[in-house]
From TrEMBL, chains A, B:
Pfam families: TetR_C_13 (PF16925), TetR_N (PF00440). The keyword Ion transport does not apply. Gene3D superfamilies: Tetracycline Repressor, domain 2. InterPro entries: Homeodomain-like_sf, HTH_TetR, Tet_transcr_reg_TetR-rel_C_sf, TetR_C. It comes from Pseudonocardia dioxanivorans (strain ATCC 55486 / DSM 44775 / JCM 13855 / CB1190). PROSITE patterns: HTH_TETR_2 (PS50977). It comes from the Bacteria. One of its GO terms (molecular function) is DNA binding. Residues 16-76 form the HTH tetR-type domain. Keywords: DNA-binding, Transcription, Transcription regulation. Residues 39-58 bind DNA. This is Regulatory protein TetR.
Length: 206, 206
């Protein structure tokens, strides 16, 4: 029962709420200070739980980090909805670009991409975390690819276009744009990166 | 005398060599394990110096981190030479893309971009480091822009093209590509990102 091992014991409603509170506190702290800068004691205090409660749900910081990756994957994808699930015309792609840029503007470009930041910090030191991040990025990429595939099926995108490659290229522009926007505290890089990706997609329009 | 404050005391030749050995050891460890995962004691041991020697050159870990950023900026730019300084035709841009991809292939995509990784880890927790990283990325971007500006002056790139914007867009593709290649341990993302950037530049060729 792999799923039960990963999720911990089957939880009561109250248990699920407590676990969720811990994960949300951990995700917020790790977004602000990084994983290394967040101790389980910080998380315990922020979530308002006891040490024994924390360890009941998460046997180690590494388990907690995995739950944070799962949580941030859902949060990052959800923050891009409803646009992300229907990127099947240029107008939708433009609306999605505007949404991504607006989210960064709201945050003053602080924190960068929650998944990208975790990836940069954890890829070399936590192979399990790296694998979970691969899966998270794959879902993001798949959502973009699905929209482009729908455009191609409707005959709006050339048969020469490779929706999988275009989706990967778009995600590189998003990730690099978010990182440079974070460093510069300026939305220009993420907007510029997305503009390039959309211009590139436009070259395949029929 | 700001420069002296930043550089520490004026050094003898032997002093400069010791300082350099410390910075190189710190850069390597921080590349492998992150800044948070690298203690000054780790650096001291790897560089083969005493504590008092380390503190003679670097009053704190933060000072050492700033020296590592300066070192990695030079190293990242140097690793892209001679291509980076003459990106003034499509052939040169293609050769540069191949060099960036080859460097990642050699490393098995481990570590990602030394500057990008430092940026992701430090942007929220060290404002001085963030500013130094902004300056490092600006040099990289300027090198790309200068090549494109030369192309435009020679009449090979349309007057409609904005070399500054194209350089920023290219750097977003590089950074996002390097991050996704690091996570996936696969050169496809960085190659795909660079291919997109070069395709986008090609749309402005005359």
């Amino acid at each position: 029962m792999e799923a039960v091992t990963d999720e911990g014991p089957r939880l009561t409603r109250k248990g699920r709420a407590t676990r969720q509170r811990i994960v949300e506190a951990a995700a917020q702290l790790m977004f602000e200070r990084g994983v290394a800068g967040t101790s389980t004691e910080d998380v315990r205090a922020a979530a308002g739980v006891s040490s024994s409660q924390l360890y009941h749900y998460f046997a180690s910081k590494q388990h907690l980090v995995r739950a944070v990756i799962a949580h941030q994957t859902e949060a990052v994808l959800a923050a891009q909805e409803p646009q992300l699930s229907r990127l099947d015309c240029m107008g939708a792609l433009e609306a999605w670009r505007d949404l991504v840029v607006a989210l960064q503007t709201q945050r003053g470009c602080e924190g960068g991409c929650p998944l990208g930041s975790l990836a940069a910090e954890l890829s070399e030191i936590d192979p399990d975390a790296r694998q979970e991040l691969v899966a998270g990025f794959a879902r993001w990429e798949a959502a973009i690819r699905d929209g482009l595939t729908a455009m191609q099926r409707r005959g709006e995108l050339s048969a020469r276009a490779d929706p999988g490659l275009l989706a990967l290229q778009t995600l590189t522009a998003v990730q690099g744009g978010l990182l440079l926007s974070q460093v510069r505290r300026d939305v220009d890089p993420v907007r510029a990166g997305l503009d390039m990706a959309l211009s590139h997609i436009r070259t395949f329009l029929i």
